[in-house]
Amino acid sequence: MCAHVVVAEDDPKQADLVRLYLEREGHRVIVVHDGRAALEEARRGPTQLLVLDVMMPVMDGLDVCRALRVESAVPVLMLTARTAEEDLLLGLDLGADDYLTKPYSPRELVARVRALLRRGSRPLPQDASPTTTTPTPPPPAVLTAGALTVDPLRHEITADGRPVSCTPGEFRLLEVLAAQPGRVFTRAQLLEHLHGIDRYITTRTVDTHVMNLRRKIEPQPRRPTRLLTVYGIGYKLAEEPHGAS
Question: What spatial distance separates the first Cα and last Cα of the chain, rounded to whole Å?
Answer without folding.
Answer: 44
